[in-house]
Amino acid sequence: MVRVSNFLVGFLNLLSFILGLAAIAMSLYFFLSSGDTKCQKFLVTPLLVIGMFLTVVSLMGFVGSSCRVNFLLVIYLIVVFFMILGILAFTVFLFMVTNARVAGVFDKTKTMDYSNWLQNHFVNGNKWNDIKNCLKDSHLCSRIGSHGSVAEFYKKNLTPIQDSCCNPPKECGFEYKNATLWTAPKKGPAVADSDCKTWSNEHQTLCYDCNSCKRGFLSNIKKEWRNLMIFNLCVLLLMICTYTFGCCAKRNNRRDSKFSGYYSNY
User: Fold this and answer.
1) Where are the domains of the chain?
2) pTM for the whole thing?
């Protein structure tokens, strides 16, 4: 009779195998998809690594539990144990770098209240030039559309990146002409903000050099990394359950092998 623990290990490994394939498919989507996701390939590597590990390890655990190959099951449990530690460490890292004191609602007028790690690795120095050029090449702002009234424009569901990189800050008091054409007030900007002077109607400039554009990009990273953190927590819970039942299955396999050896002597 197939023991319950062996069945559960096989079932959980089937789930983790499907989850691994989903992670690989998602990483390929981020890598191949068009648009501003090309500038955000920082999700590709972690998703691909997690997905490949899940698929390979799941197959190992499925064979070890279903076919009662104890040696393979022992190797599987060792790998799963270190996977649990690695995913836990990575999840803690994601939590730390995405939980600086940030307002609950994105506001591009606030100061850059993101972790130093995110700022140093994405928007500080020459690193921002690469991202900025990538955003330009992706035609981020041209996808908004350039026609319609100001009321229609503000009804559009703009992403934080589009709202921050393609438009001047609202506080500057610029007058809307179309999606990428704004005129400055005759008396000058309404507030003394450097972004008001940085804005240009030139399509290759717009507000790509604005601090608000950098905040919009960081806001999008924070959102996607938090989604990755939730995915990691689901994988972690699945791995812990699988490891627990795997230990029981290993004990069952050893016990069955002893009984089979005992009865073979008669």
Assistant:
1) 4-107+226-264, 127-215
2) 0.70
